[in-house]
Amino acid sequence: MGSAGTSWGRPELDTNATFRAHREQLAQQDTSGVFRYIFEQNLWGSPESVSGAGSESSATAHIRTEIPALLRRWGVRSVADVPCGDFGWLSTTDLGVASYFGADIVPELVEHNRLRYAADDRRFEVLDLTRDRLPAADLVLCRDCLVHLDFERIRAALRNIRDSGVQYLLTTTFPELAVNVDVQTGDWRPLNLQLAPFAFPEPLEVITEGCREGDGHYADKALALWRVADLPQLS
Predict the structure, then answer these.
(1) Which Gene3D superfamilies match (predicted)?
(2) Which residue intervals of the chain are DSSP H helices?
(3) What is the reported pLDDT for 4?
(4) Taking phi first (over 0 means left), then psi (-120 to 50 degrees means alpha), and beta for anything else, what does residue 45 get?
(5) Of the CATH numbers 3.40.50.150, 2.60.120.280, 3.40.50.1820, 3.40.50.2300, which one belongs to the domain with range 14-230?
(6) Which among 28, 154, 160, 188 counts the fewest CB atoms within 10 Å?
(7) Of 95, 88, 103, nearest to 56 (Cα)?
(8) Under 8 Å between Cβ of 103 and 141
(9) What is the edge-to-edge ordering of all strands in the sheet holding 99-104?
């Protein structure tokens, strides 16, 4: 965890500095190429998960208990997890649903997950959240994804989720953040989805993750639940 300040008033993570060292190479890639390059170079630097420190066991202990409980409360029977990453932390979690669909933009991750985790009620596919049609599901789980996309791609992803007909969106937000800033896709910054340019309404539920990165500056990191029909139309 770095200590340098940023334009959003929080310390940047070491992964941000690593990303910036590869900025020129990443700027030449499309969305799929950006995340494939990050995967191949392990730019997020976790020894446990290629999906980064936020996907390690210690970082997900609380939400592994809270997500299944939330799904039960809202009657969710099918989940589309986009992006699913390496499926490491969810592989030890019984979501209590009838079907799970995991998708990622990196083909090698999808193939790994198919070989190791696929089952009759669990399948994995290659999918770009910003443009590819999502499968039918009650809920889209979109953890630690939008924070890596530029504003244009976030809007595209949210339009795609709305067009899918899914009922609920459970996604990462930082409720105490005062302003959202744009970044190059593949970089990272916190987002408060209730602020401009997204202007989400109050969420139905919030699961505060207990994030310990950033020396406590990201303690508000949360998964928040919204009814997709309640989200604003984004141009």
Answers:
(1) Vaccinia Virus protein VP39 (3.40.50.150)
(2) 14-21, 23-27, 31-41, 57-73, 107-117, 151-163
(3) 29
(4) left
(5) 3.40.50.150
(6) 28
(7) 88
(8) no
(9) 122-126, 99-104, 78-81, 139-142, 168-173, 222-227, 205-208
